[in-house]
Each structure stands twice: as C-alpha cells, then as structure tokens.
Write a structure and sequence with these properties.
Elements: E1 15-16, E2 38-41, E3 47-49, H1 50-55, E4 73-75, H2 78-84, E5 88-90, E6 101-103, H3 107-113, E7 118-120, E8 127-129, H4 130-139, E9 144-146, E10 153-155, H5 160-254, H6 256-271, E11 292-295, E12 298-301, E13 307-309, H7 310-332, H8 338-342, H9 344-351, H10 383-394, H11 404-413, H12 436-440, E14 443-450, E15 455-464, E16 469-473, H13 475-481, E17 494-498, E18 504-514, E19 519-524, E20 545-556, E21 562-577, E22 583-584, E23 594-597, E24 609-612, E25 618-628, E26 633-640
Helix pairs in contact: 6-7
C-alpha cells in the first residue's frame, strides 16, 4: 500500500458512490478511517486495522480501547468483510494522476502495480511516476554505468569516448601489468624449482657414475686374482675329466648286453596284463594284490567265493618280484632314457615304489598303503554301470575310439583354442522350440568310464551349432582322472555320450577347453549330430525366470537300453560374481565369471544348460552349488553363456583381426 492510508485505514473521501451503509460502523476504533485488513477484539468484537494494532506498545496491546479486561485478537467476522467488499475506492495515487476506481478486494493488487506510484531515480534521485522512471534513467546524466571492458563504474555524463580513450585503456593496462607480474613471479619460482631438480639429478648421476667405475675396477681385480688361482689347477682338472669320460665309455660298452636283456624283459612285461597272475589288481605301492584275502591256507577273492591255491599266489609274487628287481636295477645304473624305455605311466608308477626286502615277501595289509586306492566296486543294483563298462570292454566299435587318457591330454593341448566356426546370436530363441521336449532332445548325459576301477563318473551337456559339438564342464574330467592308474587297462577308459533316446556315442576329440570358464567342447565320433540349443550372447538380468536342467538318475531298461531321468526346475537369476568373487552387475564393464541362481543343481547336472524360460535360449552352463551365508541356503552357480562365445569366431570380423 502507499503512504496515503499507510496500511492504517482508508480515507473516507476516497469512497466512490453512495451506499446504504453507515461508514462509521466500519471505521477503525483507533485511526477512525475505513478498516483495512481488519481484526476484532475477541471479548467485545470491536474492529481495528491490523496495522493499528501492530503499532501499539506492549503495555497498550494488552488492553482494549473499549475497556475490556484484556485484548485478544481474533479474525474479523465474515459479515464485516462482505460489507467492505461492496465499496469502490479511488486509487491512492489519484493525486498523481491515476483515475482508476477499484473494488475494495482488488485495491491492494492495483496499487502494487499502479504506474502512478512515486519512485526516485537511482541517479539524480528525482521523484516521478513509476511509468516514466525507465525512460528517465535511460537519459539521466547522473545514472551509474559499468564498462564491459574494464568493469569500472562511471556517470553517463562522462562520455563514452572520454572513458574509452583514457580511463578504460589505463585500467586495462593496469590489469595487464598486474597479470604480467603474477605470471613473472610464478615462472621464476618454477625455474628455480626445475634448476634445483636438475642440480640434484646431476649430483646423483655423478655419484652413480663414480660407484660404477669403482665396481668395474673391483671386478677386473677379482677376475685377475681368479685367473691366477685357477691356472695351476686347470691342467689336472682337464686330465681328470678325460679319465672320467673314458671310464663312462668303458662301463657303457660293458653293459650294453645287460641293458638289452632288461629292455627285452620289460617289453614282455609291458605287453602283459598289468593285473596279477591270480586275476587281482596290482598295488603300485607295495606290489601286493588288492583283490584277494587270506583264508587259512587259501586266498579268497573279496567280491566272490572263488578260491585259489596259495601256490599260485607265491608264483605270482615271484614273477612280480623279478620285474621289480629288473626295474630297480635299470634305475640304479642311471640310464638316461629310462622314461622312454618304460613309458611315461610305468616310469611314474615305479617312481613311487620304495624297493625293499618286504616288497618281495608276504603281501601287506593294503588298508595301510598310503598310495593305494580304496575298492571301488560297481554296486550290484546299478546295472547301468555294469552295462556301460561291459560295453567298453567288449564292443568292437569302441576299440577305434579315443581313450580317456588322450582326452585328458587334449584338455591341455587345446586350452583356450578358438574354433573356426561362428556361434549364432540367438537371444530371442527359435520359433520351432516351444515345449520342454523340444530343447530336452539336445541335452545329453556324459559318462566317463574307468573299467579298471569299475567307476562311472556322470556329467551333463548339450549340443550347439549343427549338433556335432557338445558343451559340458571340464572339472568332471579331472574328477574321473583321479581314478586312473598306470595300467594298460586305462587305455580302455572312455568317455561316452548318452542321448535323450538312449543311444551311446563315443567322444572323438576335445575341440577346445576354456580354462577360466570351466567349459569344454567335445566332438562326437563319426560326425554324429543331434538336435542343438540356441545360445544367448547376453547375460540375463537379475530376477530373470529360468529353467535349470536337473539330472535325477540313469538306469537300464528291460531291453538293455540306457534311459535318463531328469526334470526342469524353475529358478531365477540372483546376482553375478566377478573373477575374484566380488559381486558384478550386468550392463556395466564388470567381468561376469559366475551366475548365481536360486535352485542348487543335483549331482550329475554339471555341464547341463540353464535356459531363459521365455526365449528357451541357453543363458548359463551349470557348475555346482554353494551356501549363501546371507540366507543360509544353498544356491546354484553357473558359467554365463556369453563366456562360451570366446571359443568361436566373432561374426562379421576378418580372420586377421580376431
């Protein structure tokens, strides 16, 4: 509001028109003007201007002018406000030319924006209407301006030309000189610092140079002293070396016949069955039989009632004693190519044998042999294991397949090999794969068969590309390798793929082994092909719904055909881990080494697929389970399917760029 009523009320002469109201009834009891922003006393309902009440002293504010015991401020009744709203009032700036008549309720808003408000010029302090102020200040000679070049303030009456030609240029020169001095000081300090470093480096260089020269002198002196000390003994040493060479040559010529006899005997032994003469298995630690136990004067086979005479045992023990003696003698004469003559497996086995008299006496208690393996017999109720082992030992077609020992060697030789194929990006799945049966046909069971130990190690896998490549985990190979021995029967150990229809297909080669990802790709024998699965190149986000392959059991039907029992367990992605066990996230530059999911896999599921429930594309390869200590529950972990693409060529990339 303006100074005319000064927030204390409205002069009555500003009321426009006539009303059937007594203006005295709507006057402030203090300023006697028309009420403005009224309040009332709660005790006597006397109205006042709010500004009049605010101006009263603390003592006066406690008393009402009508003699009430205490003034208690309250809101003005609605009736008074309605009657005041009927009034039309002239603008407070009517003396300065404003002719507007405004309703009571709109008066404050109008006067705040009225162009006839009196304001002072910021230059000459002349009082004039608000609407004329801008034009006046744009022409006022005393108005302050700021130079855009030097930021100096000057009056408009100081012409732009005078300021530009003199003051502005002078100010700019002063600023440039200050900046030059600042840069000069900084540069000087930097030069001093660099000079100090240069001097320090020169001193260090001179010190190292002097030290190196002294060390060279010491080496020359020591070399001279060594030559003086060595020369007197040089001639006797050369003579002694010649004598040793002649002695070795003489021994070699004299033992040629003996070595040849040993080699012929060992060749016969290598061609013989590694098993004992009695049909038991050879203990590579104490040379005893691990399949027979003494029963009085006879020997009784552990897994049957068959009996043999102890004389046969003694004959077998004698034969083995002769072989061990020959091996020991061959090693004692330190033939350089002993490992070549014996073969790697036999030489390593002999390297673990401690030759002593007790090895050629009565057989030992094998439960105390630290290197002996426990008896691993095929359970009588597990007909499938017996069927598979007999298939390996008796089938004629299996003889041409690759042995398990060779596959182990290929795991190392083909480590991290990139195959010359392109694995398609199938993150949206395949249109012809809609049911669980459609993608179960591509899942296989892999059996690592160790006939010597009657052992069968089971894993899972699935086909990719044209169906001739099988993806599985590498750790199951190493689990099976622990049961191998140096026996020639281990050459009959095989890895066989059992299809969903019960067909047996031997594994031909290990095409590639991704060491860090625990992934191995196998080639089926004879170019055989089975249905394959689509593989998603992108990691599944957290909470993605999954179907995890779950191996249940393997059995043999009445028609002697293997059958695999399985199920698909619903699960979801929990989180990912990096190569050092830290939690990683999709959609970032984090390396994803393991996918943790909610359902722990069963034994035998390693290498099996985990598919996206929606697209039916593979998003993970099962590896195992672990305990989540946050929830104290077992969860599964798998290799993300994107790691599988490291074994294949990149699509659209030239060979020389891969």
């Amino acid at each position: 509001m303006t100074e005319d009523h000064d927030e204390h009320g409205i002069e009555r002469n500003r009321i426009n028109g006539s009303y059937d109201l007594k203006l005295e009834d709507f006057a402030c009891a203090l300023c006697k003007k028309i009420l403005w922003k009224p309040v009332v006393c709660k005790n006597c309902s006397t109205p006042f201007c709010s500004a009049c009440i605010a101006d009263r002293s603390d003592e006066q504010s406690k008393q009402c002018v009508n003699g009430c015991e205490e003034f208690v401020e309250s809101k003005c009744p609605r009736f008074i406000l309605q009657q005041l709203g009927r009034l039309n009032i002239a603008c407070a700036n009517h003396q300065h030319g404003c002719t507007e008549i405004i309703a009571y309720e709109a008066l404050e808003a109008h006067e705040a924006e009225c162009g006839y408000q009196q304001q002072s010029c910021r230059g000459c302090e002349t009082v004039l209407p608000k609407k004329d102020l801008v034009d006046h200040e744009n022409k006022c000679d005393l108005f302050d301006l700021t130079c855009s070049e030097c930021n100096m303030n000057f009056k408009r009456r100081d012409t732009d030309l005078l300021h530009t030609e003199f003051k502005c240029l002078k100010e700019q020169f002063r600023q440039l000189r200050n900046q030059f001095e600042t840069n000069k000081n900084a540069t000087s300090q930097q030069i001093q610092h660099l000079s100090s470093i240069h001097q320090q480096l020169r001193e260090e260089y001179e010190a190292y140079k002097q030290l190196a020269e002294e060390q060279v002198k010491q080496i020359i002196v020591k070399n001279y002293e060594f030559q003086e000390k060595f020369e007197p003994n040089n001639k006797p040493t050369n003579e002694r070396i010649n004598q040793i060479e002649q002695s070795v040559q003489s021994c070699k010529q004299g033992s040629d016949g003996k070595i040849q006899d040993l080699i012929e005997t060992l060749e016969k032994y290598k061609k013989a069955d590694i098993r004992c003469y009695c049909g038991g298995h050879f203990c590579r630690t104490c040379a005893g039989c691990s399949d027979w136990k003494r029963d009085g004067n006879n020997w009784k086979r552990v897994d049957s009632q068959a009996m043999i005479d102890s004389d046969l045992w003694c004959l077998d023990l004698l034969n083995r004693s002769v072989i061990l003696a020959l091996l020991y003698e061959l090693v004692l004469i330190n033939i350089p190519n002993t490992s070549t003559i014996l073969g790697r497996d036999m030489y390593l086995a002999f390297d673990t044998i401690s030759i002593n008299a007790s090895c050629f006496a009565l057989p030992k208690n094998h439960s105390k042999c630290t290197l002996s393996t426990p008896e691993l017999e095929t359970p009588k109720q597990n007909l499938l294991n017996t069927f598979l082992i007999d298939y390996v030992l008796k089938s004629q077609s299996i003889k041409a397949t690759t042995s398990f020992t060779t596959l182990l060697e290929q795991l190392n030789s083909n480590a991290n090999v990139q195959l010359p194929y392109i694995l398609p990006y199938e993150n949206t799945g395949r249109k012809n794969v809609t049911t669980k049966y459609d993608f179960t046909r591509a899942v296989v069971t892999i059996a690592h068969l160790i006939p010597l130990k009657n052992e069968v190690i089971v894993a899972s896998g699935f086909a990719v590309l044209d169906g001739g490549l099988i993806v599985t985990c590498a750790h199951t190979f190493y689990q099976a390798a622990r049961h191998l021995s140096c026996s020639e029967l281990d050459q009959k150990s095989q890895s066989i793929v059992i299809t969903d229809e019960g067909e047996l297909i031997p594994v031909a080669t290990v095409e590639s082994h991704l060491v860090r990802s625990d992934i191995v790709l196998l080639r089926l024998q004879g170019g055989r092909q089975i249905p394959s699965l689509a593989v998603d190149p992108y990691p599944a986000p957290k909470s993605t719904s999954l179907l995890s392959y779950n191996f249940v059991t393997a059995s043999l039907t009445s028609t002697s055909r293997p059958t695999i029992s399985y199920s698909w367990k619903p699960a979801e992605v929990l989180f990912y881990k990096g190569p050092y066990g830290q939690e990683a996230a999709t959609g970032t530059y984090d390396e994803l080494s393991a996918m943790m999911y909610s359902h722990p896999p069963s034994n035998g599921s390693s290498g099996g697929p985990i598919v996206n429930e929606e697209t039916k594309s593979v998003v993970g390869i099962i590896r195992g389970s672990e305990v989540n200590y946050a929830t104290r529950k077992s969860i599964g972990f798998a290799t993300p399917s994107e790691c599988l693409f490291e074994a294949f060529k990149l699509p659209g990339m030239p060979d020389e760029l891969e």
